[in-house]
Design goal:
The complex is a heterodimer of chains A (about 220) and B (about 775).
Chain A (H helix, E strand, L loop, with lengths): L4 H7 L7 H17 L3 E8 L1 E3 L2 E4 L4 E4 L1 H7 L2 E10 L1 H14 L1 H29 L4 E2 L15 H8 L1 H5 L2 E2 L5 E2 L3 E9 L20 H4 L7
Antiparallel strand pairs in A: 1-5, 2-3, 3-4, 5-9, 6-9, 7-8
Helix pairs in contact in A: 1-2, 1-5, 2-5, 4-5
Chain B lengths: L1 H6 L11 H4 L1 H14 L3 E3 L7 H4 L6 H16 L4 E6 L14 H17 L4 E7 L2 H14 L4 E5 L13 H10 L4 E5 L4 H13 L5 E4 L16 H13 L4 E2 L7 H9 L16 E3 L4 E3 L6 E5 L5 H8 L3 H13 L4 E4 L8 H15 L4 E4 L3 H10 L5 E6 L2 H14 L2 E5 L10 H17 L7 E4 L11 H16 L2 E5 L10 H15 L3 E4 L4 H13 L7 H7 L16 H6 L3 H11 L5 H21 L5 H25 L8 E6 L7 H11 L4 E4 L6 H11 L3 E5 L6 H12 L6 E5 L5 H6 L4 E2 L3 H12 L2
Parallel strand pairs in B: 1-2, 2-3, 3-4, 4-5, 5-6, 6-7, 10-11, 10-17, 11-12, 12-13, 13-14, 14-15, 15-16, 16-17, 18-19, 18-20, 20-21, 21-22
Antiparallel strand pairs in B: 8-9
The chains are: A alpha+beta (about 220), B alpha/beta (about 775).
Chain lengths: ~220, ~775
């Protein structure tokens, strides 16, 4: 699994043409990839559609709101996914911060991109296990109107505490820090991209990329 | 139990331990099934019955644990033992999470008390992935029960837990702390567990346990792949490998246990390949004393003004920097001494231990004359530490050795007693023997006793140098123990100290010194050790020696003909260079002028470039770190002359309560500090009250708060509200991924800092510049 350098440069606000930055990021990415790899678990559940969202009966999990409803319309199944860089990354980042904050900032951005790359990998695996099915875009608690309060039950449904070492704090933050949860709908018909682009983004009002006249790429 | 309860209709999200009260018949049936299948020990349904998980259930820990243990007792009768089952708390401990070691201990202690009262026969601590949490639980078990305690942890196939703990580190730490049996449960199937079991037996003399899952789970539906018979056949291999206690974890059921009983006859008394060698460790680094190991001596305030100042100001970052420098220079163990007038060692030593183990990965040698400080530090140390020191005095032997035994540490024995330091090698050797025999009597393993034969100053007691060397040789050759010496003592009062120290060091190594305590930042000293390691055969094919003296270049050098200035060094982020040039400049220029004329203009230039998108964040931070090196030189000069610190004002910063993502806040700290502000960093997950009390205590004019998540914005708002209620409220700046300028103003913040540069501009405004 590779860490997309241009993605990391974008997180750091560096220009794609900045060679020094590219070199520094490349080196950090190489070290990170050698040190650890993202781990993920997923499980596929059936979906029941309701007026106010979507219900996954085997998980005992209700996904409330317009986003879940819209995203999963036309899906009879949905995968829950959790991907993490694990405590090893947090340790590495903490120790790097004590040594070199500049390197830590780069490592932090590499970590974010790496966790997303892990999700891409999991998505590919899910697609290969369900040939002929179409996957929706990934969407996550905390984005749109899918509440963060789902996080503990989401983690429990995947047994991600035991299988990945992921925990959720009382303030609904996941630990280790580079942990992503996501829902992916599975449908028998092709799925349009529904949530990509700035129009759907909760951060659009004060986005640093937009201020610079660009976008984050999603 | 978990697998069976799911079959019996436990729904996702339900708390299994509540069934002890709501549906006792369901739990009883599970126990009965296992006892009928031949289980000799059943785990009570108390795995997650801790305060945090039961918080919103209306049931107390005592109630749920007690019901669980009683149910199991009732079913087992005389047929099986009942274990109080203790699992992880479900919340990560510091430094990974925010739960303190002390809180974790309290939660476990509560469960232990309830389990004992209900009549449990033994305690099982299981499925642990964090050695620190396992230690908290084990200490709680030892201090709140008299029952046998078994500890098992979960590893992946590479032999590490989720938090990076190795099998060896687990074995040495938990055996030292007094576990009665240790082992591995969950995570893996029996086949994958086998190599880890071998590794475990190489590292402990305790009985070992294997309690694997029913194979590996299918990624889509979570089903395990081994049948009961396949499981039992695989377990037969485990028994032949010498496992003393066996069982089944996830995916197994009474059929698996029944099948397992059938293969128990396969159990063999397999001879253990166990080398008794002294080891110190952190969860991730296990260091056997099987060769020369360098102990760094620099974390010690004696004679170091800058270090004393850092201690008095509670500046843990400085101490961490001293640790990092020593490790980079080749130290493998760090001696930690914080004894200084005005410093409360009992609180400071554990605090420094926590700061060090969060930032570096090296075993520590806890160095104090205060037994309470040693105990406080031993408690919070994550791994197996060394204690410096005990000596031949009765009082010392009686107080220190029991601590060493209880916390499973190695101990340094000084060869002195009530009559002082003997002047012959024979008498020092006799004290070493006495310390060893007293340690052995308490059950401290022989290899964990290290002896310091004491270096005396050669300019004052010339004949003693030879006695020390003879004593080292006797202890090493006749007792086979590790030997330490603080070698630099030899050269006090002489010119060219380094030469004298180096010469003595080489002689001592030759005599049998294995653990030199040195200043690893002195290149000549480490060069001598590198050379010695070739001569004694440790450094095979001289690889490390060659690498050490190969031409290495760590920082990019400017082109020939270019004369670098201090400003250039800062702009380019060249830390070493900037520090060196500052040291030169300070010989002729006043500290404040250096800051105003060079440091700040250079940082400003990088800052403007950053704002204009010409350089990116890491370059800004590199410049800040080069500036930090300059500041460090200034602080050293000021500490040595006793002058006031250069500070433009105090700023308190914190990541708000509930939030644990603190890299953004740490970046702001780095940049602010290097503009000359004194930053008091309260850390992450900081309650509003703590921010307020720090603001009061330091009379801070500016407080910076950071939050990354929408869920922690209310905590930021609350903190601002509490700060506003102060008599003379400080200015408040806020920032973080989800904070916007309009939101900041709506909750009463004075300033919104979109990044570290903006924070500097705000600080300038507040402190008037």
């Amino acid at each position: 699994m590779t860490i997309p350098i241009s993605e990391v440069l974008r997180y750091l606000g560096a220009s794609a043409a900045d060679e020094a930055a590219r070199l520094a990021v490349g080196q950090a990415a190489e070290e990170l990839a050698a040190a650890l790899a993202p781990c993920f678990v997923y499980k596929v559940f059936s979906v029941e559609h309701t007026d106010s969202g979507a219900f996954l009966p085997e998980a005992g999990l209700f996904l409330p709101g317009a986003m879940a409803k819209t995203m999963l319309q036309g899906c009879n199944r949905a995968a829950l996914l959790c991907c993490t860089l694990g405590a090893a990354f947090d340790r590495l980042l903490r120790m790097t911060q004590a040594r070199d904050m500049a390197k830590a900032a780069i490592l932090n951005a590499c970590g974010s991109a790496y966790a997303e790359a892990g999700c891409d990998e999991a998505e590919k695996e899910i697609a290969s296990r369900y040939p002929g099915m179409y996957l929706t875009d990934r969407f996550s608690p905390g984005y749109g109107d899918l509440p963060l309060t789902l996080q503990p039950d989401f983690i429990a449904a995947l047994d991600a505490g035991r299988r990945l070492g992921v925990t959720v704090t009382d303030s609904l933050l996941m630990l280790p820090a580079k942990t992503v949860t996501a829902v992916i709908g599975l449908s028998e018909s092709p799925q349009p991209a529904r949530i990509r682009g700035c129009g759907f983004c909760a951060l659009k009002e004060h986005c640093a990329y937009r201020e610079r006249g660009t976008h984050c790429g999603i | 139990m978990g697998t069976m309860l799911q079959k019996s209709g436990l729904k996702p999200g339900e708390i299994p331990e509540l069934k002890n009260i709501e549906h006792p018949e369901m739990i009883a049936a599970v126990h009965r099934a296992y006892i009928d299948a031949g289980s000799q020990v059943v785990y009570a349904n108390t795995f997650g019955a801790n305060r945090r998980k039961l918080a919103k259930t209306g049931h107390s820990v005592a109630e749920v644990v007690s019901a669980g243990v009683r149910l199991a007792k009732k079913e087992s009768g005389e047929k099986a033992f009942v274990a109080l089952d203790i699992g992880p708390l479900g919340e990560l401990l510091e430094p990974l999470g925010t739960l303190t070691f002390e809180d974790a201990y309290d939660q476990f202690a509560e469960m232990m008390e309830a389990g004992v009262a209900a009549g449990a026969d033994l305690v099982v601590i299981e499925t642990m992935t964090d050695l620190y949490e396992a230690k908290a639980a084990l200490l709680a078990a030892k201090e709140h029960t008299k029952l046998p305690v078994i500890v098992t942890m979960s590893f992946d196939a590479s032999g590490r837990t989720f938090t990076g703990c190795t099998v060896a580190a687990m074995a040495h730490t938990l055996e030292g702390l007094g576990a009665d049996a240790i082992g591995i449960n969950c995570s893996l199937g029996p086949v994958e567990l086998l190599p880890l079991l071998r590794e475990l037996r190489r590292n402990t003399l305790l009985p070992v346990i294997a309690k694997p899952n029913a194979g590996l789970p299918d990624p889509t539906d979570g089903h395990y792949d081994l049948s009961a018979d396949d499981f039992a056949s695989a377990m037969a291999l485990i028994l032949r490998e010498g496992a003393d206690i066996v069982g089944g974890c996830c995916g197994t059921n009474p059929d698996y246990i029944r099948a397992l009983r059938q293969v128990l006859s396969e159990k063999k008394d397999v001879r253990r390949v166990y080398e008794p060698r002294s080891v110190v460790c952190t969860p991730t680094v296990t260091l056997p004393m099987d060769r020369i190991r360098v102990i760094g001596e620099r974390i010690n305030p004696t004679g170091k003004k800058r270090f004393q100042q850092a201690l008095l100001e509670n500046d843990l970052n400085y101490i961490v920097d001293v640790a990092i420098q020593q490790l980079d220079a080749g130290a493998e163990i760090l001696d930690v001494n914080v004894g200084y007038p005005g410093v409360d060692e009992v609180t400071m030593l554990p605090r420094v231990v926590k700061a060090l183990q969060a930032a570096v990965d090296a075993p520590l040698q806890l160095d104090s004359a205060n037994p309470q400080a040693l105990e406080a530090a031993l408690r919070v140390y994550n791994g197996k530490a060394a204690v410096n020191s005990v000596n031949g005095k009765e009082e010392s032997l009686n107080v220190i050795l029991p601590l060493v035994k209880k916390y499973g540490a190695a101990v340094v024995g000084l060869t002195l007693d009530e009559d002082g330091i003997p002047d012959t090698a024979e008498k020092r050797f006799a004290i070493a023997e006495k310390i060893l025999s007293r340690a052995l009597a308490l059950g401290i393993p022989q290899q964990d006793v290290w002896i310091d034969c004491l270096t005396l100053t050669v300019s004052a007691q010339q004949e003693q140098a030879e006695e020390t060397l003879r004593a080292v040789a006797m202890v090493r050759n006749q007792l086979g123990l590790q030997t330490l010496l603080g070698v630099s003592n030899i050269s006090f009062g002489l010119p060219n100290r380094l030469l004298m120290t180096q010469t003595f060091l080489i002689r001592a190594l030759h005599a049998g010194l294995t653990l030199p305590i040195v200043n690893p930042n002195q290149k000549d000293i480490m060069d001598a050790i590198a050379a010695f390691r070739v001569l004694n055969g440790e450094d095979a094919q001289s690889k490390r020696y060659v690498a050490r003296f190969a031409d290495t270049q760590t920082e990019s050098k400017p082109a020939a003909g270019f004369t670098m200035t201090l400003d250039d060094a800062i702009l380019r982020g060249l830390k070493t260079e900037a520090g060196r040039m500052a040291r030169e400049a300070l010989k002729t220029e006043a500290p404040l002028s250096l800051v105003e004329r060079h440091l700040i203009p250079a940082l400003d230039k990088v800052g403007v470039d950053y704002e204009q998108g010409k350089v990116f964040l890491p370059q800004l931070l590199s410049a800040a770190q080069a500036a930090q090196a300059v500041f460090e030189e200034i602080k050293t000069v000021l500490a040595n002359t006793g002058a006031e610190t250069v500070s433009k004002g105090k700023i308190i910063i914190a990541t708000v309560q509930g939030d644990i993502h603190d890299i953004g806040k740490n970046i702001v700290r780095t940049v602010l500090e290097n503009y000359g502000y004194t930053v008091i960093d309260l850390g992450k997950d900081v309650p509003p009250e703590k921010v307020v009390s720090a603001a009061k205590e330091h009379c801070a004019k500016l407080v910076g708060l950071s939050a990354l998540m929408t869920t922690t914005l209310p905590a930021m708002e609350e903190t601002i509200a509490q700060l506003r209620r102060m008599d003379a409220p400080p200015a408040v700046m806020v920032g973080g991924a989800v904070v916007t300028e309009s939101w900041a103003h709506s909750v009463g913040a004075d300033h919104y800092a979109k990044d570290a540069r903006a924070a500097v501009a705000i600080a300038r405004q507040v402190f008037g510049e």
